[in-house]
Amino acid sequence: MKTYIVLIPLEENDDARKQCEQIENTKFSLDNKSCIQIKKMVIELINDTTYNLDGIEVWAMSEFMEWCNDEQFNPVHYFMSYVYA
Q1: Low-confidence ranges of the chain (pLDDT < 70)
Q2: Number of domains observed in the structure of the chain
Q3: Range of the domain at 19
Q4: pTM of the full predicted structure?
């Protein structure tokens, strides 16, 4: 099982923190563990039609760490959670 970071943009989403807390620690059983597939599952799990959730980003932990270490990630724009697949 791998850990994936889920980033929910704050822009135009007043419930981003609640949504992150809702999905935190969720375990998905998938044959194809692509970030795109996990994003689809996360959006289904959140099940909120009030906001456009297309801006959600899903990163494999190793890729996310590299992004952070390269100083390309600005946490000001997101609430963050994690899931497993």
Answers
A1: none
A2: 1
A3: 3-7+15-84
A4: 0.92
